[in-house]
Automatic annotation (TrEMBL), chains A, B, C:
<protein>
    <submittedName>
        <fullName>Trimeric intracellular cation channel family protein</fullName>
    </submittedName>
</protein>
<feature type="transmembrane region" description="Helical">
    <location>
        <begin position="34"/>
        <end position="61"/>
    </location>
</feature>
<feature type="transmembrane region" description="Helical">
    <location>
        <begin position="67"/>
        <end position="83"/>
    </location>
</feature>
<feature type="transmembrane region" description="Helical">
    <location>
        <begin position="6"/>
        <end position="27"/>
    </location>
</feature>
<keyword id="KW-0472">Membrane</keyword>
<feature type="transmembrane region" description="Helical">
    <location>
        <begin position="90"/>
        <end position="110"/>
    </location>
</feature>
<feature type="transmembrane region" description="Helical">
    <location>
        <begin position="179"/>
        <end position="200"/>
    </location>
</feature>
<keyword id="KW-0812">Transmembrane</keyword>
<dbReference type="Pfam" id="PF03458">
    <property type="entry name" value="Gly_transporter"/>
</dbReference>
<dbReference type="GO" id="GO:0005886">
    <property type="term" value="C:plasma membrane"/>
</dbReference>
<keyword id="KW-1133">Transmembrane helix</keyword>
<feature type="domain" description="Glycine transporter">
    <location>
        <begin position="96"/>
        <end position="169"/>
    </location>
</feature>
<comment type="similarity">
    <text>Belongs to the UPF0126 family.</text>
</comment>
<feature type="transmembrane region" description="Helical">
    <location>
        <begin position="154"/>
        <end position="173"/>
    </location>
</feature>
<keyword id="KW-1003">Cell membrane</keyword>
<feature type="transmembrane region" description="Helical">
    <location>
        <begin position="122"/>
        <end position="142"/>
    </location>
</feature>
<feature type="domain" description="Glycine transporter">
    <location>
        <begin position="10"/>
        <end position="80"/>
    </location>
</feature>
Amino acid sequence: MNNLDIYYTLGMLGTVAFAVTAVLAVIPKQIDLFGAIVMGIVTAVGGGTIRDMILGVPVFWASDLNYIWVAIASSIVAFYGNQLMSRKNIYALMLYLDGIGIAMFVIQGADKALDLDFALPVGPVLLGLITAIGGGITRDVLAGNTTLLLKKELYALPLTFGVILYLIMIQVFPEKVKLLGTLCATLTFFIRAAAIHWKLHVPKWMLTQKRGIFSN
Amino acid sequence: MNNLDIYYTLGMLGTVAFAVTAVLAVIPKQIDLFGAIVMGIVTAVGGGTIRDMILGVPVFWASDLNYIWVAIASSIVAFYGNQLMSRKNIYALMLYLDGIGIAMFVIQGADKALDLDFALPVGPVLLGLITAIGGGITRDVLAGNTTLLLKKELYALPLTFGVILYLIMIQVFPEKVKLLGTLCATLTFFIRAAAIHWKLHVPKWMLTQKRGIFSN
Amino acid sequence: MNNLDIYYTLGMLGTVAFAVTAVLAVIPKQIDLFGAIVMGIVTAVGGGTIRDMILGVPVFWASDLNYIWVAIASSIVAFYGNQLMSRKNIYALMLYLDGIGIAMFVIQGADKALDLDFALPVGPVLLGLITAIGGGITRDVLAGNTTLLLKKELYALPLTFGVILYLIMIQVFPEKVKLLGTLCATLTFFIRAAAIHWKLHVPKWMLTQKRGIFSN
């Protein structure tokens, strides 16, 4: 496989993981097959869709429907195979694949904004994050679940760190964009994987402080 | 009336039904007139608006404000006339009109995507569904209600069936697009109407299976 | 300061108020710093972003990142200074600044739609309102809070009144657009300020009527 194939394959694995974890997350809500597929598609391609609408460019899946097909197939498999899928080791695998997905998509999203010179230097950070977590947030809103913005899990923070590091590094080494993208996505994934493995939480100084006695 | 007039009239009746059922659905939440009108507009034109933003074309109501006027007027009437409107027979009428609305809009939305050669063959299915149920889902999210994705009612499934049937049939009989659109919308409506009348639910094999003992 | 500077300064103050009130509103939910910043940005620029996506024009903050920087900085300050910020007098100040923000943004949003001849005459009203309250509604949805559409507070109604008055007045005095914009925004703010000060609610005839005995 050449580089492009690897990226494409990883992107598809991330899409599988997005759809599967989405379906498993809503199954306790007594969803039907249709709803499950919608949740799978929304989670898998929702972030990139919002990014493209903000960028004012055609949505990415319109020119490559594999993203949709893979999301639909994964959702169906997850729906009917949920007993298997929610077994601890399979679910853990999905969490790590989801980690690969968000780590890749945050860099990909930033790259797309960079290519269009969109709102530099903040635009690529925002759109990278929207690409990676926009689908998951939309899924939580549609399912009536607490969005990941209100959870203490170390989920969005490694992404923010990784994408900012990437954007700084490519300023310093502009001829190494591809290598740096791979490195930063890998690093981001490893931080996220560590967070999954050791159940790491957001550091205390980033959590809400107790409110003082003078507050109303 | 010629064909176009009939379609336009049905579209407006669907808009009335979308707005009225939206307002009746949020009235138990103690909404005020402003909120009711917003809910009515969002439900009536929200799906088509999301579709047009994904397609990257001007939103449909910008060139025909009748959709907005009808939604506003229907919302006001539903708000002040809710005692009448929520009488069983009037509400049932609205449910059937809503059925006409979703059946027509799913075909219309698919047609718009087809005309633009958008992401064939999946794009028209997705955008048809978004046109038909996107407004209702947005309403549920804004009202804090469980979205229709999490209900067992036979609502989105007949739409999916109807729009896929339509897209297959026009491949086979490409010169009969108009007739087939009417037929498939009618069939879709009748399935939905049967679901309303006999309170049909999603078939069992499309519901969540019980989770096995090995699941975590 | 010339006029433009004043408008720009007021816009930035409104942005500060949007971000700060957003963060204070979600702090009881145990949000972390990342989530707080996202909420601050979404609330501050979300409404204008939705407006621009509906208009089909580039999002406004892409060409002036100060809106994003100010939202981020305000969110961080509000997050760590929440004991101070939620003291009654500071919080009241933020409510009034928020009032300045929505009063200005409703007129600004309407102006942008007017400049593009978008869906006259209803388009400017709708897009003005979306600009002013779209961010706040998105924040409530993401935070799992009841949206302002379901509250009896006099919040959106003064905006609707102000923007419709503005659109009528500039028909009558088309050469006084700037003056009328300032006047209507000021009037809108004063009504909102009165609502904050005297805790005014939506008038009774705009509230849901009791449902009759015949209702189902």
